[in-house]
Amino acid sequence: MKIAVLIDSGSNYYGENINLEGLYCVSLQVITPEKGLRDGQEITSVETYRLIEKGMMLKTSGPIVQDVHDVVQQIKKVGYDSVYCINITTGLSSTIPTVKMVVEQEGLTYFGIDCFTTARVQLECAMKARKMFDQGQSVDKVQQELQDMIDHSITFVIPIDMKHLQRGGRLTPMAAKLAGLLKITPILYLNEETKGKIESYKKVRTMNKAMNYVLEHFIEKGIDSSYKVCVTHVLAPETANKMVELLTSKIENLDVYVVDLVSVVGVHTGLGCLALQYVKK
């Protein structure tokens, strides 16, 4: 059995410039009022956020079905007979069933797992799977290892643009107005517990308080150098760097880095958003 690993651009595969033999990617879409653009290939996260900065309301969508066929056909030509897929969670997208359908239509064996999020957790799982398959590990062993990583992961999202959430349908006008008047900063999260759906974790008054609540969670869960931590943002590098300083001041030898938030999330949360993930290595 020769197994390819397939992910999507929600993992930030293109933004991270990943080039790993046997690891393939298909683009999700950023939808403008005029057309759909392949995320990471036809438009970057920063270019996406510059459009939002200009007042454009954008949407996101799963991959073009023909693009999935093209990638799977490429996988077949190389000689793979099976595909292990780690796609953006079903809580955010219908990509997983779409990819499964195409893989099976192309006559290959489908394996996969729901990471219950996207971005760095998804990418870490994919690179781990690729490494294990290259070492000759079985699908069952890979499944167990990835499940352990997923069990020890979380994604926090801290949006600050309530008007953007209102325009995108994530908040009612009344809720957005109330949040603005009370200066509420919501802390949202998703993981296996939420089945990949974004849920409320805490509501606080300021970004500083939000960051401290997240730090408390990290400490409570015993996050240390055995975890990969990713701090992401939507055109808010100073906030992201401040979060890194806060984390590293309290947790020694933390493996943390900063990157732009993936478009599939940032399009919906708006400018100034901060997001954090940890995943067990």
Compact summary:
Helices cover 41% and strands 23% of the residues.
Describe this structure in words.
The protein is an alpha/beta fold and about 280 residues long. It is built from ten helices and 13 strands. A hairpin with an 8-residue loop joins strand 9 (about 185-190) and strand 10 (about 200-205). The longest helix has 16 residues, at about 120-135. Residues about 175-180 have low confidence and may be disordered.
Uncertain spans, ≥5 residues at pLDDT below 50? 174-179
Shape descriptor = globular
What is the overall number of helices? 10
The amount of beta strand, in percent, is: 15-25%
Please state how the strands of the largest beta sheet are arranged side by side. Answer: 10-9-8-13-11-12
Mean pLDDT: 93
